Amino acid sequence: MGDVGDFLEKWPAHALGRSFAKSNACVINNRLVSLTEVETKIPNIVPKPKFLDTIEKKICDGLKNIQSNDRDLRFQIYKEAFQSFIHEFKTYRTFLSDIYKEYEEYLSFYKAEAQKLRPVKEYLWTISQECDERILKLQKRERPELNSLKREIIRLRELVSQLKEDKVGLETQVEQLTQSIKEEHDKFRYEADAKRLLISEINAMRMQFDESEGVSKQLQSKTSRQDDPVLLKIALEQARKAQSASEFEVVQLKAEYVNVMPKSRYDALWEANSKIKNDYDMKIKENEELNESLELLKNQLNEVMKQRDQSETTVQQLQRVSTPRPEWSEVGRKLPGGLTRWLEETASMTSQEKMHFLVNQLTAQSAENIEFNLNEYIKEELNFVPSFLKTTEAEVTVSRPIHLRDCLLLTHEIWKTRKNEKDSVKEHSIGQRRRSLASRRLSQMKPQLKPSTISPNITKLFDEFLYNFFKQIYGIEQIRIEWAYGFYEMLIKEKNNYKLNELRMIIENKMDEECHWHLESWILFIKEQVLTFIDSSNNSSVIIPTTENSEQRKVILKQTLHEALLNIFSQQDLINLNIIQSAEEYASLQIKDSPAKALTNMDEGENKDNESIQTNLHNMLDFNKLFNNATDEDFNPFLKELVSIYKHLKTTFVNGIITELQKLTSDGVQSSNVTLAQVRHTIERIAPSTAVTLNVRPKSGRPITTQQQQYTLSIDIESSLEWLFRIKPSDSPSQSISLNQLTTRLEGCNLFFGN
Question: Which sequence ranges form a coiled-coil region, renumbered to this chain (predicted)?
Answer without folding.
Answer: 146-187, 280-321
